[in-house]
């Protein structure tokens, strides 16, 4: 619920017609930081983060990936 409320505040909502992005709130074993996240991209995008800070940085990474893809 924390991640869903974070993305709602960012103006992002679920859309049945677009790319599927899953948000999972969980501890990241490799890194204990509140800013840690895991990003998996295949037929969907899965963001795992312990806190909304981690989710924020994951979205920033996605933005960078999408910007590079447009060039």
What does it look like?
- Helix content is 38%, strand content 21%.
- It is globular, with a radius of gyration of 12 Å.
- It has 71 residues and is an alpha+beta fold.
- The protein has helices at 2-9, 52-70, and strands at 21-25, 37-41, 45-49.
- The chain has a 3-stranded mixed beta sheet with strand order 1-3-2, with helices on one face.
- The chain has 2 helices and 3 strands; from the N terminus they run H-E-E-E-H.
Question: Strand order of the main beta sheet, please?
Answer: 1-3-2
Helix proportion range: 25-40%
Uncertain runs: none
Shape: globular
Terminal CA distance reads 35 Å
Main beta-sheet strand count, sense and barrel state: 3 strands, mixed
Helix/strand class = alpha+beta
User: Beta-strand percentage?
Assistant: 15-25%
- The average pLDDT score comes to 80
- Please provide the ordered H/E string of secondary-structure elements: HEEEH
Total strands: the figure is: 3
Q: Radius of gyration in whole Å, from Cα?
A: 12 Å
Number of helices: 2
